[in-house]
Amino acid sequence: MGNDASFVILKSRGLLTVGGQDRVEFLQGLISNDAQRVSDGCSIWAALLTPQGKYLHDFFVSEIDGAFVLDCEADRLVDLGQRLSRYKLRANVDLGMSDTQSVAAIYGNGACEGFGLRDEVGASISIDGGIVYRDPRLSALGVRAILDKTKAVDILTARGFKESTLDEYDRWRLEAGVPDGSRDMVVEKSILLESNFDELNGVDWDKGCFMGQELTARTKYRGLIKKRLVPVRIDGAAPAPGTDILFDGKNAGEMRTSCGGAGIALLRLEYLERVLAGEGTLRAEGCEIVPRKPDWAHF
């Protein structure tokens, strides 16, 4: 049933819950995507920004049993919860954490078909007390799931999926050119558009105001984006995240995460265009960095 698809339990992810009758209005005024779209049939990807439009957190938002569940970075879950709690004021909102469920990623041929998900990003269905949904960022990434921690592996193997490793999934993600939280985006420094949130369904331009919306919109409509995260191939030993990437001795960007020769890098568009046109090469710590513009990108 699972065909060639694999799954991995993402132990680096945690779950924050947002309940209460004001939960939609509460999130709607804070996050970059439209909280009104979230239901038991639709999940989204969104970000929380500083008032100056800089990246703080990104997360997936699903609905389970009448409450929002935010799939976020486990190591930064408490920080996200504390930031959200500052804006509760008198809203009827309950913030909590779920430690009884796991997050899984299912990817490869047959991932979506194995659950009968409809053909649109973010499409969700309830399953075994949890939820599965097409990755809201990119259909090619497959499916994400929130399942009972004690049953997750059994549920997925029973559907014909084989258990994989985090490195194998990480390489899949990197080859698709999709960032992974604060591993690829710098807290209080990165901006959404250079991190491709607009291309990966992470921003709703029609929802109205949200934290950092004014500066995010300004960068879009004034064409102020000079850099973008792009997938790269690394010919040589992978440079550490943050390593400068050079074009003819000039700074052209910096490395972010990598795995097995695949990586993602923040590159200046002027140099990216020249390299893609065959006018030069990029290098970092003695190895060549070969960028690629992903099929989904319109920049």
Describe what is shown at a glance.
This protein is α+β, with helices and mostly antiparallel strands and 299 residues long. It is built from six helices and 17 strands.
Describe the structure.
The protein has 299 residues and is α+β, with helices and mostly antiparallel strands. The protein has 2 domains: 6-176, 2-Layer Sandwich (Gyrase A, domain 2); 226-294, Elongation Factor Tu (Ef-tu), domain 3 (Beta Barrel). 17% of the residues lie in helices and 34% in strands. It is built from 6 helices and 17 strands. The protein has helices spanning 23-28, 77-85, 152-158, 166-176, 213-221, 269-276, and strands spanning 6-9, 13-19, 44-49, 55-64, 67-73, 94-98, 101-107, 124-127, 130-134, 143-148, 162-163, 227-235, 244-247, 250-259, 262-268, 282-284, 287-291. The chain has a 6-stranded mixed sheet with strand order 8-9-10-7-1-11, with helices on both faces. Strand 13 and strand 14 (250-259) form a beta hairpin. The longest helix is centred in the middle third of the chain and has 11 residues, at 166-176. It is globular and about 55 Å long. It starts with 5 loop residues before the first strand and ends in an 8-residue tail after the last strand. The mean pLDDT is 95.
